[in-house]
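Model: You mentioned two targets. I'll fold them one after the other.
Researcher: Yes, keep them separate.
Model: Target one:
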Amino acid sequence: LNSCLYVYYFGHFVATRNLQGEYSDVVPQMIRSLPVRQPDLSDAAERQRHDHLADLAEMMRILYENYQHATTSHDKKLIERQIAVTDNQIDQLVYELYGLTDREIRIVEEATK
């Protein structure tokens, strides 16, 4: 749900804006309306992608935890770079899972910069 694709989708198709241009509160119905692809875990390739995505999500959790405990600006910068790389890997895997074309990926990434 934290991938660029979902940020884009939520902002363009789910969230509503009030008259001041601010987004409304996120409610459970909004989250339930997001199209979440369910992998076929009996398929080896799908299982491998699922497991890889889960590993990346866990790595991201650990990186953010490490960032909270980092004491030097050097350490924080290093962790920020690792977070950016991991975040990009997650985005690429999500694009692959949903079968986005290069053009669609560019649209999503430009809109979520």
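Model: Target two:
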Amino acid sequence: MKIRRLSTKDLADVARIQRECYSGHFIESVESFAAKLSAHADFSFVAESGGVAVGYVVAFPWTFGEVPELGGLDYTPAPDTDSLYLHDLAVIPAARRSGAADRLFDAVLGAARSAGLERIFLVAIGTASRYWRRHGFEVVEVDEMLERRLEGYGAGATYMARAVAT
């Protein structure tokens, strides 16, 4: 298993992996992923097995207490942010027990530590909060405004966070 930085050359693989992992509402356009990478590519990685992309993670600096628009085209972070938003981590079903997800997450944490970021947060979809709890994330209470924004991520979306250094 090889982990390397995600680039715009990998966007066709990202689209393929999304189709294998998600349904309708959660599939984002190649343009949206390109916007995320152009805003800050240092925190996004791809997992390859036998030269084939089997998973990816996309993360970028963002203000804690907010969520970026799902499928948006502008992901310019605030200049003074101290947090990293883990937007998406996906591994194709055939590679789910290969350790790819853990290795992708470790790459994100290492990049966040190197950048001096203090916190990492995400929106867990469906039952994914159980997975993220195993990685030290805790549910964050949200205000009414953030709760309305989370509706764009589907029913049961959960705002979660943890310290980068544990």
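Researcher: Noted. Anything on target two?
Model: The longest strand covers residues 52-61.
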